Fold this protein.
Amino acid sequence: MLNLSKYTALLPLILLFSCTMSTPKLSDKIVIAHRGASGYLPEHTLESKAMAHAMNADYIEQDIVLSKDDVPIVIHDIYLEEVTDVALMYPERSRADGRFYVIDFSLDELRRLSVNERIELSTKKAVFPNRFPLKKSNFKLHTLQDEIELIQGMNKSTGKNIGIYPEIKNPGFHHQHGKDISKIVLQILKKYGYSKKSDACILQCFDAKELQRIRQELNSDLFLTQLLDFPESLDDLEKYASYADAIGPSIEQLWITSFGKSLEEKKDLIQRAHKLNLKIHAYTFRQDEHPNFENFEALLNFGFYELELDGVFTDFPDKVIRFLEN
Ligand code: CA
């Protein structure tokens, strides 16, 4: 006879295990909050990350640039003036090219800046005029540690397990300034419990040499995404599969057929990538920018069901989640 008591004794353990398992949702389609819920609040602010968390994105993205004192700052560019009031606060601190570099400022100085919706430098107007208004409220820059603590803290208080999706920005530029950004970021990730593929963290980079270095020289066992910005780079799938777990092409690379490949050829490429065990996480899905598609839903239909993408980076995580639920 089956000894039931043996199994019931194990039940709490099994339940505990299934609740605390932090395996990323890699079998299903994932929604990555691109710079947070950046369709609604200024990109890469803690507020936009909290909103993305409340919306139940699977992962929340962090772009990372180092400060002068080697602190990883969550910001999209190596420059400051498109998303902060740096030109007003430190008018003398631009370089000869007229630009203000994150790497020239200490964390203390960066913390004094106010963050705004992204502007077009030439016109000083908002890039997305229908989003959060310019120069309203009070937003600040923050560190990678600040953001991990926010997400892990909200995971604890809500019982969710939302992942992080950090990107190493411009490693070559950092190396030129004597800074090993990857090493610094990996150390912080490890400190916060992210070191294996099964942890809720995906590390991404456009620089193929650097991502290879992260896997082979820095011996990272994290889930790695090779970002791609040229359509021809889609051909090197075997190379990416040798060190990465996913590729991240732009949606334009996938739908613009004038790059010498037909839609059928691109679908073949995606199938080949899947056969090589590469996931495909494409960027960037925006409700207020979907050229060549009638509406956002048509773009999502194309991405998820024509191309069979495994995940998308989106400024509007709530809209994509609702689309997938339906
Ligand atoms: Ca990014």
User: Anything to note?
Assistant: Residues 1-27 have pLDDT under 50 and may be disordered. The chain has 13 helices and nine strands.
